[in-house]
Amino acid sequence: MRFLVLFLSLVLIPISHAATLKGVNGVELLAIDGQKISSGMLKSKDLNVTNGEHQVVVQFAKRINQQNMVYSRPTIFSIDVAGDTEIKVRNFRDVNQAESAVRKGLVWLVNNDKETIKVTDGEELFEEGFQIKPDIEKLIAKYNQTNGIMAPALVDSNKVQIEENTFKGENMHNKTQQLITIYQKSSLEEKKAFRMWLLEQDIK
User: For the chain, percent helix, then strand, then coil, each to nearest 5?
Assistant: First the structure.
């Protein structure tokens, strides 16, 4: 269901008030609303989303000089998307400064059409050892369960197959057929959750 909502939010941008979310200055977007951002879904650093609250997972990963990459652990927090929104950290002069900031805890800044705010409730996602590319969806599920955050189950990846060119949207008829197919293959509970989500978009 989470994939269904994310997909429809991307396709129905004109209806649900589009916004652009991106990471800058070494900030990578790893997931949004429990769904890992794959290369097929995000060809550039920009992601089209709906305005409103979203849970995101980000990571700092930047080459400071020719020899050194500096990584942070994935960090999860919620943001308010209001128009074009950026998630960033401050600039670092050198590797020592960047590594020191990572050890102390990076200060994440969210800049949108309304304001620039400092994230104060971000939490690092841990797993055994340090993995540069950890199992993000597993870590998110564990975090949400531990903190009592309700999140719909992800749709089985074998249940719905979506071609990359669906997102390019050159043919509205094909888009409509894709939406109908996804909806028809969803369970009654998923259909109900989606109708509620769509109603919320209409009244915003």
Answer: 35, 25, 40
Non-local (6+) Cβ contacts of 80 within 8 A are 52, 53, 110, 112, 114
Closest alpha carbon to 131 in 123, 139, 141: 139
Output the pTM of the full model: 0.65
Separation of alpha carbons 111 and 29, rounded Å: 15
Cα angle 191, 1, 159 (rounded to 5 degrees) comes to 100
Rounded Cα–Cα distance for residues 75 and 120 (Å) = 12
Sign for the CA dihedral angle at 195, 198, 203, 204 comes to positive
Element (H, E) at 137: helix 136-146
Total Cβ atoms within 10 A of residue 42: 17
pLDDT in tens, 155-182: 333 333 333 344 444 455 566 766 777 7
Could you identify the residue written with the tokens 């991106």? Answer: 22
Residue 165's contacts (CB-CB under 8 Å, 6 or more residues apart) are none
C-alpha 98/C-alpha 174 separation (Å) is 47
Q: What stretches of the chain adopt beta strand conformation (E)? A: 18-23, 27-32, 35-36, 46-50, 52-63, 69-71, 75-81, 85-88, 109-111, 116-118, 123-124
